[in-house]
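Render this sequence as a predicted structure.
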Amino acid sequence: MGDPAIGDPADLGELTVHDRVIETVTERVVLDTSGVIRSSSAIDRITGREFPRITVVTAGKRTRITVHAAVAWPNPAHTVCQAIHDRILSEVPHLTGLPVDRVDVTAHYVVDTAPPRRRILQGENDDHSRT
């Protein structure tokens, strides 16, 4: 029981963590997962289709999280999705104080993050050697 001067802790109010807070925490956990990248084009930012995209639905003490992510090449998409899933289940409850009942993860894009390689066309070197 709590301090008698304060009274019963159950009468002091309630604690609410809004879905947007859970989404922000989840996004940070997802982006900290190896192989995940933030991906968006100008049109994606306008339409709200940038990745990762997180949706949280809470009902009472039940929380369901859906993640749509972009994976950096050459990481195996299934391995990255499993890592996202596992990290959300372990870290989000710790950081928000709310249990997570279900996590769905989908990889939408695999993005090549390596710098582009310069192609040398046949005959390109020949032009430079004729001076």
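Summary. The helical segments are 19-31, 42-47, 77-96, 124-129. The mean pLDDT is 84.
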